[in-house]
Structure formats: structure tokens, C-alpha cells
Amino acid sequence: MPIQYKGIAAEHTAVRERVGLFDVSHMGELHVTGPGALAAVDSLITNDLSKAENGQAVYTCCCNAQGTILDDLIVYRRGDNDVLVVCNASNRPKIAAHFREALAGRVEYRDESDETALIAVQGPRALELLRLVGSSVDPSQLKSFRFAEGSLADVKVTIARTGYTGEDGVELFCPNAGAARVFSALLDAGAPLGVEPIGLGARDTLRLEARLSLYGNEIDETTNPLEAGLGWVVKLDKPSGFLGREALLKVKAEGITRTIVGFEMVGRGIARHGYPLLDSGGATIGLCTSGGPSPTLGKSIGLGYLPLGLSAIGTSFLVDCRGKSIEAKVVKPPFYKRKPSAGIA
């Protein structure tokens, strides 16, 4: 997947206004099957997979014993004894080894990443494109984070109502051998809709506007889900428990000292990953985790960690932009929220 095809701004706009295709086959796919598969996976994630239905996916964190984040995952409940775990490409070796070791002797485990392609179809015309290309599953009948088995361009696919852009759309899992056929069919059928292939650059600007975390930026092994704004995927009371639960119970009891915030620049400047966040006296109080110009909003935006007492909406602070202190203010995320589209959201 290249950084860009025609340009980040143009590709970003294509997804916001029409439809874009992402080849995200670099993601990792770990398949867990057999009696006890559901409980085994549930013991390694913060969300509660037992409350999902077959055909439903959950977004979750995978923590270590210290309660910090090894990766954020989407876990697909394919059946009572059949679970698919999708992890970030950069974390695949770590997460594959983590699951392999934790599940050894309990269930069947297989890393299917090298055999599986993943294509994201995102944008307000994404579902229209799926119908044009002859999907055997009507994606408008899938609720958010539901999935179904079907076919597209004579290739067997799993169609999931998921994505990483803040737009409606689907993600398509298929065998590597059929990936080029599916991608080409989508490009050809989508020409009248203005479809474009999308690179990593626009994928980043799209997810930033939607305030979606990126591993290595907002979350990593130095952050816990509660301070990262992901407390909603941490089910501390789930009966099965999970690795890291005790550490997170302690964090909750003691209270977090910092939290992730969304902000926009007030002065002329662009916040970037790694830039220090300063108080009015110039002392460092936090760190920008992601930032840049927003193609949709026409302003510079960012995410970063600030002390809890300085995280309220409207709070002003400074960003050290290569030696220049530029004013910014905390705003309520997400920066961009799509309009409801046709079909089941």
C-alpha cells in the first residue's frame, strides 16, 4: 500500500464525498477454533466477546499484565467455537506470539495473515458500489460491526460493516489468490461513482478527523485504555476476567492523571506527532500524538495527552512547533462526523 496514488488531499476527498478502495492486506489475521475458542480469546481482550452474537465483531484492546496496550484489535465471532482476530500489521509478530503462547494446548490456533487479503471500501457511495459489482450480500442489511459470508466477482469473501475512516463502508476478507480480481472489479464498476484507490497518507488524515487511535501514536505499551479514551471497550466486570484486569482495576481506583484530548490550532502552525504541549509559561505538560491539516475542515487539528486538570473543552495551551509556541485549544472530538447514510447504520 503506497503513501499516495494521486495525492493525499484528493484521495481524502474521494472517500469523504464518493468512495475509496484501500488495500489493507498487511493487517494480521489470527484464526482460533475448537471447543473453548470463545473463552480463550475472551481471556486476552478487554471487551466482552461472550455478549456478541455469532456474525458480530467487537473492537477491543489486548493488554499485558501491567494493563498497558499490546494492540487494539477487531475480533470477529464467527461461531461459538470459531473466532477471527485482526491485529495491526506492525504488531503482528508480537500479537501472533502472544496468542500462540497463551492459547497453546487450549484451542486450535493458526496465523492466516499470509493467506488472507483485506480490502476496505469506504465512503458515502460504498454500499452502492458493492451492489454494482454484484455482491451476494446486501451490505445495507448488515448493522455496524456485523459481517456475513458471501461472494463478489466470483470470489468467496467475508463482508464486514467495519472501517477506519469515519465513513460508512465495508471491509472484505478474501483469499490472496482472488484479491486482484476483487480489487479490479471494484475499480471498474466504481468508475461512474468516482472511485479511487487510497494510500496510507489519506488513511491517516481520515482516521485522525474521526478521532480513531493509531497504534504507535495514541496507544502503545506505555498507555492504558482508560487514559487513552478507550474505557468503553474495557469490561472490568466481565465474568471471565482478562489479562491486565487487576492492573486496570487499580488504575480506575486511583484515577488517571492524564487523558487524550482533541485540539485545534488557534495560531498559525501545524501540530505533528511528537511535538511537546506546553503551558502558558512554556513548561512541557504533554505530547502531541497525531496532528496535521484537516482536508475536510480546513484547519490544523491534533490529538495528544494532557494532565487531567487541563483537559476540559475550551482549555488553551501551546504547541511547540519546531521552537515556536503556537496557541491551541481543546475541542470535543471527533473532529468530523459523517451524515447518516441510507441503510442500517
Q: Helix- and strand-based class? A: alpha+beta
Q: What's the main sheet like?
A: 6 strands, mixed
Number of domains: 2
Identify the CATH homologous superfamily of the largest domain.
Answer: Probable tRNA modification gtpase trme, domain 1
Number of E-state strands: 17
What is the CATH top level name of the largest domain?
Alpha Beta
The helix fraction, in percent, is: 10-25%
What separation lies between the terminal Cα atoms? 28 Å
Mean pLDDT: 96
What descriptors fit this protein?
345 residues; alpha+beta; Gyrase A, domain 2; Elongation Factor Tu (Ef-tu), domain 3; 2 domains; six-stranded mixed sheet; six-stranded antiparallel beta barrel; 7 helices; 17 strands; 20% helix
What would you note in describing this structure?
This protein has 345 residues and is of the alpha+beta class. The protein has two domains: 8-208, 2-Layer Sandwich (Gyrase A, domain 2); 257-333, Elongation Factor Tu (Ef-tu), domain 3 (Beta Barrel), CATH 2.40.30.110. Helix content is 20%, strand content 32%. It contains seven helices and 17 strands. The chain has helices at 8-17, 37-42, 92-103, 126-132, 176-189, 200-209, 245-254, and strands spanning 20-23, 28-33, 56-63, 69-79, 82-87, 108-111, 116-122, 147-152, 155-160, 169-175, 196-197, 258-265, 276-278, 284-294, 299-307, 316-321, 324-331. The strands form three sheets. Strands 8-9-10-7-1-11 form a six-stranded mixed sheet. The protein has a six-stranded antiparallel beta barrel with strand order 12-15-14-13-16-17. α1 packs across α6 (200-209). The longest helix is centred in the middle third of the chain and has 14 residues, at 176-189. It is globular. The two termini are 28 Å apart. The mean pLDDT is 96.
